[in-house]
Description:
There is one protein chain. By secondary structure, the protein is of the alpha+beta class. The chain has a single domain, classed as Nucleoside Triphosphate Pyrophosphohydrolase (Alpha-Beta Complex). Helices cover 30% and strands 24% of the residues. The strands form 3 sheets. Strands 2, 3, 4, 5, 9, 10 and 11 form a 7-stranded mixed β-sheet that branches. Strands 1-13-12 form a 3-stranded antiparallel β-sheet, with helices on one face. β12 (264-268) and β13 form a beta hairpin. α2 (87-94) crosses α3. It starts with a strand and ends in a 9-residue tail after the last strand.
Amino acid sequence: MRIRLDRAGAGLTARLADIAAGQVAPVAARDAATVVVIRTETAGAGIEVLMLRRTAAMKFAPGAYVFPGGSVDPGDYREVGWQGPPAAEFGATLGAPEEVARALVCAAVRETFEESGVLLAGPPGSGPPATPSGPGWAADQLAVAAGELTFAELLSRRGLVVRADLLVPWARWITPEVEPRRFDARFFAAALPDGQQPVGHAAEADHVAWLSPAAAIASAQAGEISLLPPTVTTLNDFASATAAGDGIAAILSARRTIEPVLPRVIVEDGAAWLVLPDEVGYPR
């Protein structure tokens, strides 16, 4: 599968040649985590996906509709309360050592809270997740996003643990080697906890939307919104998983074998193309 890219300048062509010749080493990909938050459609048995439109000022993918997520920070390696499958189990699925897998899950929960206000954490035990509402929680969200309060400190102060049991590993995408900013991103799925409402972080997202997977793909194909290839593929996965009408249950019960997807960039006749493996379910 090939996707036409907007850029094919001399700089891209030269960097591709330098990497192919071994004169330039690809930038190391940073570990990152993304959460696809889902809910049942307001009318119907389908699902809707939480999407954030990145502000025009963002360096990476400005204006694109994305899922909450971001890079793993050093603070994500700090010890926090944990409920759910052991980190080693996540690591085996996601292709990461136990310590990195634990940090990936923590980053997924932290970034989702920072960017959308959705909190996949709760008191220890079998009860429901916390409901982060009220001015105190809004201040905490801003403080965590600004780096003034670590996520571990927030959880400790409020007596909460990371609810790893709410996260379903879904996919792994690695940025093409030619890119100067690269991520090794693990994707998770999670249902919106009862009683929670997303609130976007204004510095990173200027619009919060609930879209059905099929509607989001159709809007992108019509040029109405911008989606990155991993986002399109994940939305297509979700549309396929729920086609039988099983809704959220079809996604949360999925136990996927996850192989890393590493697209390539090529230039032919002055045009740049992103090349995806044939087995990737990118909609045509």
